[in-house]
Amino acid sequence: MYRVIFSPEAEEDVKRLNRQAPSNIKKLTKLIKELQEHPRMGTGQVERLKHYEEETWSRRLSGEHRLIYRIYDEIVEVLVLSTFGHYNDK
Predict the structure, then answer these.
(1) Hey, is 74 helix, strand or coil?
(2) How many structural domains is the chain composed of?
(3) CATH number at residue 18
(4) In the prediction, which pLDDT does 19 show?
(5) Is residue 26 situated within a structural domain?
(6) Residue from 47, 54, 55, 64 carrying the catalytic annotation
């Protein structure tokens, strides 16, 4: 089981998401549970992003918001980078 941690930016994104699009929080919770089990597959249109130096993945929260994260298999950890916006961290 992977440990899911949030970057400081992602923690702020969750707060902003909760204020501006609270309906996405339920889906975010579901996706986080999936990340713990199998971070490379599942719901939310799982996609490996191409324009990053490190292996970075995306899942759809809504038409506007994405869950962006990195997987570290060697330490069994997933780092959430962003939960707000449409690939804002490029």
Answers:
(1) helix
(2) 1
(3) 3.30.2310.20
(4) 94
(5) yes
(6) 47
